[in-house]
Amino acid sequence: RKEVEQDPGPFNVPEGATVAFNCTYSNSASQSFFWYRQDCRKEPKLLMSVYSSGNEDGRFTAQLNRASQYISLLIRDSKLSDSATYLCGGDSSYKLIFGSGTRLLVRP
Amino acid sequence: EPEVTQTPSHQVTQMGQEVILRCVPISNHLYFYWYRQILGQKVEFLVSFYNNEISEKSEIFDDQFSVERPDGSNFTLKIRSTKLEDSAMYFCASSEKVAGTFGSGTRLTVV
């Protein structure tokens, strides 16, 4: 089983829609989780850290469910500029293990 | 905003040649990483470096690869005897703890 798994998408949504991504992880020893955003042929950029109590930043909400070993990212009122690939990552002793990413396309 | 700097942005090399990819991490960060992303695939961990030594390495990071921190600022990845399948984007990252800041990457093309 892969350490971090994501639905590759693409999720194709209209502007203003709410969209949610899930990510599951297999390493129960992982303590910290993160969502990164990656634009085409660019580096991953940290979007949010996710801790056991969750995290909200403007239109973005990240939630961690340790019992079920999944992390979610909710984007409200999506913008055209939200179009990107969203990478879920979990720490595993001095390194980040990423999922394959979920591609989001926001259309006008 | 502090950033991780990588050079060159694009490197083309012939199969069998050695390449050195360079990175300048954020100055007060203690952990350094190299990741690789083959076109269309996921970002894969290669190696982590802390306190002047390798903390962990993946199964990808075999004897063909090595890392160095030759001075107080640079962090390099050396790939010996490059193969076609080494063609990828190589990202350097640094962090105070785990969530790293990534450099803009070096696109390595082996021909």
Cα(first) to Cα(last) distance of chain A is 37 Å
Subunit organisation of the chains: heterodimer
Helix content of chain A: under 10%
Instruction: Note the main sheet of chain A.
Output: 6 strands, mixed
Low-pLDDT regions of chain A:
none
Work out the radius of gyration of chain A.
Answer: 13 Å
The overall pLDDT average of chain B reads: 94
Strand content of chain A: over 45%
Summarize the model shown.
The complex is a heterodimer of chains A (108) and B (111). By secondary structure, chain A is an all-beta fold.
Helices and strands in order:
The complex is a heterodimer of chains A (108) and B (111).
Chain A: E1 4-6, E2 11-14, E3 19-25, E4 33-38, E5 44-50, E6 55-57, E7 60-65, E8 70-75, E9 84-91, E10 96-98, E11 102-107
Parallel strand pairs in A: 2-11
Antiparallel strand pairs in A: 1-3, 3-8, 4-5, 4-9, 6-7, 7-8, 9-10, 9-11
Chain B: E1 5-7, E2 10-13, E3 19-24, E4 31-37, E5 43-50, E6 53-57, E7 65-68, E8 75-79, E9 88-95, E10 101-102, E11 106-110
Parallel strand pairs in B: 2-11
Antiparallel strand pairs in B: 1-3, 3-8, 4-5, 4-9, 5-6, 7-8, 9-10, 9-11
